[in-house]
Amino acid sequence: MRNDIEGVAFDLDGTLYPNYSLNIRLIPFLLKEWRLLSAFGKARNIIRKEQKENPSILFNNFYDYQTEITAKILSVPADQLKEKIERLIYRGWELCFKKIKLFKGSKETLSALRDAGYKLGLLSDFPPRTKLEYLGISGNWDAVLCSEECGALKPHPKSFIDLAKAMAIPPEKILYVGNSHSYDVAGAAGAGMKTAWIKELLSSSLGKSPKPDFSFHSYRQLFNFMLK
After folding, report:
1. Number of domains into which the chain is organized
2. Could you tell me if residue 1 is inside a domain?
Protein backbone atom coordinates (compact mmCIF):
# COMPACT_ATOMS: atom_id res chain seq x y z
CA MET A 1 0.00 0.00 0.00
CA ARG A 2 1.10 3.54 -0.71
CA ASN A 3 0.25 6.14 1.91
CA ASP A 4 0.82 9.00 -0.55
CA ILE A 5 -2.01 7.83 -2.86
CA GLU A 6 -5.72 7.61 -2.05
CA GLY A 7 -7.12 7.04 -5.53
CA VAL A 8 -6.07 5.61 -8.88
CA ALA A 9 -7.57 6.96 -12.09
CA PHE A 10 -7.27 5.55 -15.59
CA ASP A 11 -7.51 6.56 -19.20
CA LEU A 12 -9.45 4.00 -21.25
CA ASP A 13 -8.36 3.73 -24.88
CA GLY A 14 -4.92 2.15 -25.18
CA THR A 15 -4.62 1.98 -21.40
CA LEU A 16 -7.05 -0.72 -20.29
CA TYR A 17 -6.98 -2.49 -23.66
CA PRO A 18 -4.44 -2.48 -26.54
CA ASN A 19 -5.05 0.11 -29.26
CA TYR A 20 -4.42 -2.40 -32.04
CA SER A 21 -7.44 -4.47 -31.02
CA LEU A 22 -9.72 -1.53 -31.84
CA ASN A 23 -7.78 -0.32 -34.87
CA ILE A 24 -8.05 -3.72 -36.58
CA ARG A 25 -11.82 -3.67 -36.21
CA LEU A 26 -12.01 -0.13 -37.58
CA ILE A 27 -10.31 -0.93 -40.90
CA PRO A 28 -13.61 -1.16 -42.88
CA PHE A 29 -14.70 2.19 -41.43
CA LEU A 30 -11.31 3.77 -42.15
CA LEU A 31 -11.45 2.68 -45.78
CA LYS A 32 -15.00 3.93 -46.29
CA GLU A 33 -15.00 7.11 -44.18
CA TRP A 34 -11.37 8.22 -44.28
CA ARG A 35 -12.28 11.82 -45.24
CA LEU A 36 -14.62 12.16 -42.28
CA LEU A 37 -12.14 10.63 -39.87
CA SER A 38 -9.29 12.82 -41.16
CA ALA A 39 -11.38 15.98 -40.82
CA PHE A 40 -12.61 14.90 -37.37
CA GLY A 41 -9.02 14.38 -36.19
CA LYS A 42 -7.95 17.75 -37.59
CA ALA A 43 -10.86 19.44 -35.81
CA ARG A 44 -9.83 17.97 -32.46
CA ASN A 45 -6.23 19.09 -33.06
CA ILE A 46 -7.50 22.62 -33.73
CA ILE A 47 -9.46 22.58 -30.47
CA ARG A 48 -6.41 21.36 -28.54
CA LYS A 49 -4.27 24.08 -30.11
CA GLU A 50 -6.82 26.77 -29.23
CA GLN A 51 -7.01 25.58 -25.64
CA LYS A 52 -3.23 25.36 -25.35
CA GLU A 53 -2.87 28.94 -26.56
CA ASN A 54 -5.72 30.13 -24.32
CA PRO A 55 -6.37 27.72 -21.40
CA SER A 56 -9.35 29.82 -20.26
CA ILE A 57 -11.32 28.63 -23.31
CA LEU A 58 -13.90 26.03 -22.30
CA PHE A 59 -16.75 24.76 -24.46
CA ASN A 60 -20.19 24.21 -22.94
CA ASN A 61 -21.30 23.23 -26.47
CA PHE A 62 -18.21 21.12 -27.25
CA TYR A 63 -19.94 18.73 -29.66
CA ASP A 64 -21.52 21.55 -31.66
CA TYR A 65 -18.20 23.38 -31.93
CA GLN A 66 -16.36 20.20 -32.93
CA THR A 67 -18.98 19.58 -35.62
CA GLU A 68 -18.70 23.15 -36.94
CA ILE A 69 -14.94 22.85 -37.39
CA THR A 70 -15.23 19.41 -39.01
CA ALA A 71 -17.93 20.70 -41.36
CA LYS A 72 -15.75 23.63 -42.44
CA ILE A 73 -12.88 21.27 -43.25
CA LEU A 74 -15.19 19.07 -45.32
CA SER A 75 -17.15 22.03 -46.79
CA VAL A 76 -20.51 20.51 -45.82
CA PRO A 77 -23.43 21.86 -43.72
CA ALA A 78 -22.88 21.33 -39.99
CA ASP A 79 -26.49 20.33 -39.33
CA GLN A 80 -26.13 17.37 -41.68
CA LEU A 81 -22.78 16.30 -40.25
CA LYS A 82 -23.66 16.20 -36.54
CA GLU A 83 -25.91 13.14 -36.85
CA LYS A 84 -23.33 11.36 -39.01
CA ILE A 85 -20.53 11.90 -36.47
CA GLU A 86 -22.77 10.68 -33.65
CA ARG A 87 -23.92 7.61 -35.58
CA LEU A 88 -20.65 6.53 -37.16
CA ILE A 89 -17.92 7.63 -34.74
CA TYR A 90 -19.49 7.82 -31.30
CA ARG A 91 -22.15 5.10 -31.43
CA GLY A 92 -20.69 3.02 -34.27
CA TRP A 93 -17.28 2.46 -32.69
CA GLU A 94 -18.80 1.41 -29.38
CA LEU A 95 -20.05 -1.85 -30.89
CA CYS A 96 -16.43 -2.94 -31.45
CA PHE A 97 -15.95 -3.16 -27.69
CA LYS A 98 -18.16 -6.23 -27.45
CA LYS A 99 -15.23 -8.20 -28.91
CA ILE A 100 -12.25 -6.35 -27.43
CA LYS A 101 -10.27 -7.95 -24.62
CA LEU A 102 -8.68 -6.03 -21.77
CA PHE A 103 -4.95 -6.08 -21.11
CA LYS A 104 -3.95 -9.21 -19.20
CA GLY A 105 -4.20 -8.59 -15.47
CA SER A 106 -5.98 -5.22 -15.75
CA LYS A 107 -9.34 -6.42 -14.44
CA GLU A 108 -7.71 -8.24 -11.53
CA THR A 109 -5.63 -5.16 -10.71
CA LEU A 110 -8.73 -2.95 -10.62
CA SER A 111 -10.44 -5.37 -8.21
CA ALA A 112 -7.33 -5.57 -6.01
CA LEU A 113 -7.05 -1.78 -5.84
CA ARG A 114 -10.69 -1.47 -4.77
CA ASP A 115 -10.29 -4.23 -2.19
CA ALA A 116 -7.25 -2.40 -0.80
CA GLY A 117 -9.35 0.73 -0.23
CA TYR A 118 -8.30 2.91 -3.16
CA LYS A 119 -10.95 4.93 -4.93
CA LEU A 120 -11.02 4.37 -8.69
CA GLY A 121 -11.71 6.95 -11.39
CA LEU A 122 -11.76 6.96 -15.18
CA LEU A 123 -11.30 9.86 -17.60
CA SER A 124 -11.47 9.41 -21.37
CA ASP A 125 -11.45 11.77 -24.35
CA PHE A 126 -14.43 9.86 -25.78
CA PRO A 127 -17.67 8.88 -23.98
CA PRO A 128 -16.63 5.79 -21.98
CA ARG A 129 -19.72 4.47 -20.20
CA THR A 130 -21.11 2.12 -22.86
CA LYS A 131 -17.59 0.90 -23.65
CA LEU A 132 -17.06 0.02 -19.99
CA GLU A 133 -20.28 -2.03 -20.01
CA TYR A 134 -19.18 -3.98 -23.08
CA LEU A 135 -15.74 -4.54 -21.54
CA GLY A 136 -17.35 -5.89 -18.36
CA ILE A 137 -15.87 -3.33 -15.95
CA SER A 138 -18.65 -0.75 -15.59
CA GLY A 139 -19.11 -1.43 -11.87
CA ASN A 140 -15.52 -0.75 -10.83
CA TRP A 141 -15.57 3.03 -10.60
CA ASP A 142 -16.21 5.75 -8.04
CA ALA A 143 -16.20 8.37 -10.81
CA VAL A 144 -16.36 8.20 -14.62
CA LEU A 145 -15.87 11.34 -16.72
CA CYS A 146 -15.53 12.27 -20.38
CA SER A 147 -13.26 15.23 -21.09
CA GLU A 148 -15.58 16.39 -23.90
CA GLU A 149 -18.37 16.78 -21.36
CA CYS A 150 -16.00 18.87 -19.22
CA GLY A 151 -15.49 21.27 -22.13
CA ALA A 152 -11.80 20.59 -22.74
CA LEU A 153 -9.81 17.81 -24.35
CA LYS A 154 -6.70 16.36 -22.74
CA PRO A 155 -4.09 17.58 -21.89
CA HIS A 156 -6.07 20.60 -20.64
CA PRO A 157 -6.15 20.30 -16.82
CA LYS A 158 -9.90 21.05 -16.50
CA SER A 159 -11.15 17.48 -16.92
CA PHE A 160 -8.46 16.10 -14.58
CA ILE A 161 -9.42 18.62 -11.90
CA ASP A 162 -13.10 17.74 -12.41
CA LEU A 163 -12.20 14.07 -11.97
CA ALA A 164 -10.43 14.77 -8.69
CA LYS A 165 -13.53 16.62 -7.46
CA ALA A 166 -15.78 13.74 -8.50
CA MET A 167 -13.51 11.30 -6.65
CA ALA A 168 -13.46 13.66 -3.62
CA ILE A 169 -9.66 13.37 -3.43
CA PRO A 170 -7.02 16.13 -3.79
CA PRO A 171 -5.24 15.84 -7.17
CA GLU A 172 -1.88 15.26 -5.46
CA LYS A 173 -3.33 12.11 -3.84
CA ILE A 174 -4.32 10.58 -7.20
CA LEU A 175 -2.21 8.41 -9.50
CA TYR A 176 -3.40 8.81 -13.09
CA VAL A 177 -2.61 5.91 -15.44
CA GLY A 178 -2.49 6.49 -19.19
CA ASN A 179 -0.79 5.41 -22.41
CA SER A 180 -0.26 8.88 -23.95
CA HIS A 181 2.58 10.92 -22.48
CA SER A 182 1.47 14.05 -24.35
CA TYR A 183 -2.18 13.84 -23.28
CA ASP A 184 -2.36 11.66 -20.15
CA VAL A 185 0.98 12.21 -18.43
CA ALA A 186 1.23 15.90 -19.32
CA GLY A 187 -2.42 16.61 -18.53
CA ALA A 188 -2.51 14.79 -15.20
CA ALA A 189 0.82 16.25 -14.09
CA GLY A 190 -0.43 19.72 -15.03
CA ALA A 191 -3.40 19.20 -12.71
CA GLY A 192 -1.10 18.16 -9.85
CA MET A 193 -1.62 14.40 -10.05
CA LYS A 194 1.00 11.68 -9.87
CA THR A 195 1.33 9.79 -13.14
CA ALA A 196 1.92 6.27 -14.41
CA TRP A 197 2.64 5.55 -18.07
CA ILE A 198 1.79 2.18 -19.63
CA LYS A 199 4.27 1.56 -22.42
CA GLU A 200 3.06 -0.56 -25.31
CA LEU A 201 5.62 -2.24 -27.58
CA LEU A 202 5.51 0.57 -30.14
CA SER A 203 5.37 3.44 -27.64
CA SER A 204 7.42 6.46 -28.57
CA SER A 205 9.83 8.28 -26.27
CA LEU A 206 8.57 10.84 -23.79
CA GLY A 207 9.93 13.78 -25.76
CA LYS A 208 9.29 17.07 -23.98
CA SER A 209 6.43 15.77 -21.84
CA PRO A 210 6.86 15.55 -18.06
CA LYS A 211 8.49 12.36 -16.90
CA PRO A 212 5.94 9.98 -15.31
CA ASP A 213 6.35 8.95 -11.69
CA PHE A 214 6.13 5.32 -12.78
CA SER A 215 6.38 3.48 -16.11
CA PHE A 216 5.25 -0.10 -16.70
CA HIS A 217 4.68 -2.68 -19.44
CA SER A 218 2.32 -5.07 -17.64
CA TYR A 219 -0.44 -4.73 -15.07
CA ARG A 220 1.48 -7.07 -12.80
CA GLN A 221 4.07 -4.30 -12.47
CA LEU A 222 1.37 -1.74 -11.61
CA PHE A 223 -0.09 -4.20 -9.09
CA ASN A 224 3.28 -4.58 -7.39
CA PHE A 225 3.95 -0.82 -7.45
CA MET A 226 0.66 -0.05 -5.69
CA LEU A 227 0.07 -3.05 -3.45
CA LYS A 228 3.41 -4.62 -2.50
Report:
1. 2
2. no
